[in-house]
Amino acid sequence: MAIILDGRKISKEIEKEIKAEVLACSKDGHRPPHLVAVLVGEDGASKTYVTAKMKACDVVGFKSSMIRYDDTVTEEEVLNEVNRLNNDDGVDGYIVQLPLPEHISVEKIIDRIDTTKDVDGFTPANFGKIDQEHHSLLPATPMGIIELLNRYKIETKGKHCVVVGKSHIVGMPMSILLAGPGDATVTLCHIHTQNLEEHTQKA
């Protein structure tokens, strides 16, 4: 029997849990966590995503800040901002929203991010720890999917899971989490996969 996984319902439950944790920490004299988002340019999807993150922070009691640059900002200026955030003890985590303008190297920016503040889990060090028991920060979407499966008590061990898409943001880390900690047999499909429907029907 098919099960509908209600992500909106689970997200509300998690919001309440995090809000309670933040409140408890505040009562103990600790400041709320501080998330910073660096947004470059006027990409509509990026602005929507970052705005949603800021609103989510407000809901659970996090402090949030947005740093805006227009698309003429230099690579050096963005790298300097990353350095500043790395060294700011008042910032617990941050994201540099992608995509970036073509004249800015995404690889250089990500490599400069402090792994302990890498909320997206994009740095090579964090990505390389995905399949380890004591992994660091995980990419948000794969982590959310795993949390959703866990909340619904859906066992992946020994099952055949098919992941469609091999991006380093979703597909690749998702397949690693399912095959590693999830103990599933994973088929990773992508744009060059032949007979996609045949693979998905075997899941």
Automatic annotation (TrEMBL):
Domain called Tetrahydrofolate dehydrogenase/cyclohydrolase NAD(P)-binding: residue spans: 139-203
Entry annotated with the keyword Metal-binding: no
Annotated Gene3D superfamilies: Leucine Dehydrogenase, chain A, domain 1 (3.40.50.10860), NAD(P)-binding Rossmann-like Domain (3.40.50.720)
Record keywords, A-Z: Hydrolase, Multifunctional enzyme, NADP, One-carbon metabolism, Oxidoreductase
Entry's Gene Ontology BP terms: tetrahydrofolate interconversion
Ranges for domain Tetrahydrofolate dehydrogenase/cyclohydrolase catalytic: 5-120
Pathway linked to the protein: One-carbon metabolism; tetrahydrofolate interconversion
EC number per UniProt: 1.5.1.5, 3.5.4.9
GO cellular component, one term: cytosol
GO MF annotation, one: methenyltetrahydrofolate cyclohydrolase activity
Subunit structure as annotated in this protein's UniProt entry: Homodimer.
The name this protein goes by in its record: Methenyltetrahydrofolate cyclohydrolase / Methylenetetrahydrofolate dehydrogenase (NADP+)
Organism: hydrothermal vent metagenome
Lineage: unclassified sequences, metagenomes, ecological metagenomes
